[in-house]
Amino acid sequence: MRAPYLPHRGKPTHQFAGYGQPTDPEPKFYCDEFLGDALQPEWTATTVGVATAAPSAVSGGVFQLSLTATSQAQDALLDQANLRAFDLKAGLFFETRIAKISDSFNYQAVFGMAGNHNSDKDTITEAAWFRFQNDNGLLVESDDTTNNNDDVATGTTIVLGEYNVYGIDFSDLNDVRFFFNGKRKGMGTTFDMSNLTDAEALMQPYFSIDKGSGAGITTLRIDYVKIWQEVRAT
Amino acid sequence: MLNPVPAYEPARFGSAAKSANRTTEGHVFFEDDFRGTGLNDAWNTVETAGASVTLPTQIPGGGGLARMALTAVGQLQDAVIYFGDMLQLDPSEQLLLECRASFSVAPTSGSHALIGMGSNHFAAGNKGSMTHNMWFRLSGDLALLIETDDNVTNNDQVATTETLVLDQFYTFQIDLEHREDVRFLLDGKRLLPQTTFDMSGLSSSTLLQPYIAIYKTSGTNAGTLDVDYFKAWQGRGA
Questions:
Q1: Which of A3, A215, B176, B200 is the most buried (most CB within 10 A)?
Q2: Which residues of A touch B (CB under 8 A)?
Q3: Is there a contact between A136 and A157 (Cβ–Cβ < 8 Å)?
Q4: Which residue ranges form the domains of chain B, and what is each CATH number?
Q5: How far is A105 from chain B (nearest CA, A)?
Q6: DSSP letters of A86-151?
Q7: ipTM of the predicted assembly exceeds 0.85
Q8: Taking Cα atoms as reference points, which of B93, B21, B175 lies closest to residue A223?
Q9: B84 contacts in A (CB within 8 Å)?
Q10: Is A10 contained in some domain?
């Protein structure tokens, strides 16, 4: 038996006869399953060196970021070209399903919500994301330009090749919450992002792996990205 | 992303539009309503000779569609929309495909149309070389045929009792809940329930892509296929 289908999302906000009861505007919902042979136009894939970033012929569609064995600086990045269309002050929830296929050394991987891209990830002014750094230990980070929580260990070690669901709940910017397969992580730390200005709170989904040098290889497969935003533009 | 619920949902799936936990992984869902001036970037096209794939403006009733057309020039022509051989649809994941389409110019002798999914693209004249396929087919007229091929069991041009009406939209569905008994539905009605379309020869790693085509190998026969939307659902694999 199939699991239930996703909910119907086609209901008019301001109702007309025959469409049922009036409702408030539905939350903004964004989803990409990475199906087909090219990215949707809102995305930009960037590579440095011989790293690769491309859709892959995998069941259900994935976007794959890979560092290769060539010893050089490499970066494989997927973002929305600094077009920051998502508002952390609007009750945002970020979710992605990712498998780390291979793992090596001398690399870092981050994925979550971020401000403008920088090849030095720690230089990105504002962000909240999951992080791997040279191993399979899951870290979480947040930075609102004032409160900077770097490399917070979660105690979770992922299994290579397995998909996991990563969520970040921004409904309370005084206490941003990170979830791994539905379980809250980093509970010993308060991830305070309340210092974000309105402009800084506009962010983009951001996925990156990079290395400065060395022959390490690493691959991330992104199955989907989903973002809910409770409040629409005002 | 509007209405990711099948237009005709077989009763065994329960009621449509169930409420969802917002962190559920849910189904993989793909939809294209063919709005705007260009195809969704997921698609690739083949437009051989004078055949064309366009998104015409000012559609009666609005909403957008992809128009795939052959011209009356006597030559091989092929108009296809597909995923550019990026095979990502998984028959092992209870795949359900749905496409709403109409013929505004009927295929005549020598022109053919396919609505369904397959493995890597082959040009007009060699579509039968596609290793795996399952699709609705029209061949020379508006009589609806069904074909499946899992590289073991090959069902070619199986006649249904349905003949399409020109300029009328139909909902075509292919249901792979059970690969050994693939179901083809037209406007929610199962076609040829007594015929077994067995795709169990597919390996668990076989992947497919959407494949919608109108083509001819020669002759002056035309044909125009208007695709209103394409949707696909599948389970989320490991």
A1: B176
A2: 1-10, 29, 31, 33, 35-41, 55, 57-61, 93, 95, 97, 162-163, 165, 167, 179, 182, 223-224, 228
A3: yes
A4: 27-223 (2.60.120.200)
A5: 26
A6: EEGGG-EEEEEEEEEEE--SS-EEEEEEESS--SSGGG-SEEEEEEEESSSEEEEEEEESS-EEEE
A7: no
A8: B93
A9: 36-38
A10: no
Q: Looking at the 3D structure of chain A, how many domains does it have?
A: 1
Confirm whether A9 is domain-assigned.
Answer: no
pLDDT digits (tens, 9 = 90+) for A196-227: 999 999 999 999 999 999 988 999 999 999 88
Domain carrying residue A113: 28-229
What are the DSSP calls for B128-196, one per residue?
GG-SSEEEEEEESSSEEEEEEE-SSSEEEEEEEEEEPPTT--EEEEEE-SSGGG-EEEETTEES-TTS-
Residues of chain B falling short of pLDDT 50: 1-6, 9-24
CATH number at residue A188: 2.60.120.200
Tell me how far the alpha carbon of residue B171 is from its chain's centroid: 10
Q: What is the pTM of this model?
A: 0.86
Condensed to tens digits (0 to 9), the pLDDT of residues B165-208 reads: 999 999 999 999 899 999 999 999 999 999 999 999 999 999 99
Which structure tokens are listed for B147?
């074909």
Residue closest to B115 by CA, chosen among B125, B102, B104, B106: B102
Q: What is the C-alpha to C-alpha distance for residues A169 and A193, in angstroms, rounded to an integer?
A: 12
Task: Map residue B13 onto helix, strand or coil.
Answer: helix
Instruction: State the Rg of chain B over Cα.
Output: 17
* Interface touch A6/B236, C-beta < 8 Å: no
| A15 located within any domain | no
Six token digits for residue B26:
């849910």
